[in-house]
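Lab notebook: predicted structure, single chain.

Context: the supervisor wants predicted structures on file for every construct in the current expression panel, including those that have not yet been purified. This is the next one on the list. No modifications to the sequence; it matches the entry in the shared construct table.
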Amino acid sequence: MKGHLKLALVSLVGLFALIVPLIVQGYCGEKQVKWNNVSEEEKQPPPVEQSPQFKPKPWGRGLNSTGQEPRNWLRQLPSNHQSEDLPGEAQLKQQAKLITVKVLSGMSSGSGIIWQKQGEVYTVLTNNHVLIFGQANKSYKIQTPDGKLYPAHVVKTVDFQDSDLGLLAFRSQQNYQVAPLSVPVNISPGEEVFAAGFPSEADATKQGGFVFIPGKVQRWINRAFGGGYQIGLTISLKKGMSGGPLLNRQGKVIGINGVHKYPLWGNPYIFADGSTASVEEKKEMQHFSWAIPVPNFLQKRP
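Prediction complete. Output recorded below exactly as produced.
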């Protein structure tokens, strides 16, 4: 019995050894036929995508403390970018903030524009009606964009005559931005403009009270009001913004703000020749805030 079982087992092993090679040969033969039918072009391996090679920049000059090259924003702009492109509103606001100061005049306050630097002496342009409140005690201070306070004095070497303009000077070893003035000024109704300054309202506490208000030029009058005002604005200037800059879309200062809408007292609508605006003209003019064009200042600057 055991002999018969042993013989059957050997027979099965031998049969399996014969069948397996036949199966493998048939499968490989089928694969070989299929591969032979493939064209030489299709047999070529697919191209390998080459990853862009990273070339590390050497350490040394031009690299910051982290080993990275300092950012050059102009170089990172698209190739079709033009240097003449207009700055964004956020950039204009930052520029305005760097050139605008708060003027503390007696018990009152206004705004001013850093106009000039000579050595350590800075000159600030503002409105004369801002300076009136400090005349009695000659009490003037300038609060710069970094929040520092400096004693200041009125510059008396220039006579602005009837223009509502004045100059203050202060001394500092700090480096502050000087305003870019636009000369000549080309202004047309509908042009986008921006007013900056420090309203004196108690609730104007954001960013140290600094505000930046967009608007448009609504009127340009050839016959200036007393004080030199010629630019009518849709912007609602606030008390305390007098003396602050009016910027165009290119970031240049084109005017000095000074008269807000709907004045509560006085009549600012008296022309430089002494004539008064008609009732109809006055009703129209009071809808706008007003600024003095930069050329009115540059004609009389020291």
